[in-house]
Specification:
The protein contains 5 helices and 10 strands, in the order βαβααββαβαβββββ. It is of the alpha/beta class. The radius of gyration is 17 Å and the shape is globular.
Length: about 210
């Protein structure tokens, strides 16, 4: 069975608005590493349309720096599943997912392969409610946004993750964030996660 992994960029106060995130070359490299661990991506309509608008070729000349290109190529080539009841069709190497969300995602997980990767905010919350996310990663930037949206706002119950980690995004090489989670046997694990230095860069649309 393929694991379903979720990674999201957040500020210290939990804001996951992509406009509050300051990505750079290292953050994009980390995102590529996540994507290549998956056989397919799972998006809701909003995230799919944002990602398509930002990353589907052809890009305007000079629209983004060269270090964004590996991410652009990786997400463009990736197989995508789009959960939507309103879209009639998708054609960015994508397939619509309709009907019962839980059953559809369970069927995708039962297929053989490396794993699935889910992005966005609302769809992952619905999947968390169903207990279908196997691994959570929270990429934390040393910034206070002072506004939302915040992760998992309105979640109806506690979700105890099987595996989770924090990836620190900081201004210095030796910053440390402690990732706290549980292994698959239920034992608590605490792992130091070295921070990734960030250089100021404009956030591209659709990054979240």
């Amino acid at each position: 069975m393929r694991p379903l992994r979720y990674s999201i960029n957040v500020t210290l106060d939990g804001c996951c608005d992509h406009r509050a995130i300051v990505p750079d070359e290292d953050l994009h490299r980390h995102a590529v590493e996540n994507l290549v661990q998956a056989d397919a991506l799972l998006f809701g309509r909003v995230t799919y349309e944002m990602m398509e608008a930002a990353w589907r070729p052809p890009a305007r000349t000079g629209a983004r720096p060269d270090w964004m290109e590996p991410f652009a190529r990786t997400i463009d080539a990736a197989k995508k599943y789009v959960v939507s009841s309103t879209l009639d069709r998708v054609d960015w190497n994508a397939e619509l997912v309709r009907g019962d969300l839980g059953k559809a995602v369970q069927q995708l997980k039962r297929e053989s392969g490396k794993g699935l990767f889910v992005g966005g905010v609302k769809l992952p919350q619905a999947l968390a409610e169903l207990g279908l996310i196997d691994e959570y990663e929270f990429v934390v930037q040393p910034r206070l946004a002072g506004h939302g949206p915040t992760l998992f706002s309105g979640l109806s119950k506690y979700v105890d993750s099987l595996l989770s980690k924090l990836t620190g995004i900081g201004p210095v090489d030796d910053a440390i964030v402690w990732g706290i989670g549980r292994d698959r046997a239920g034992a608590e694990i605490r792992l130091p996660v070295p921070a990734v230095p960030v250089r100021q860069a404009p956030a591209p649309p659709g990054w979240s």
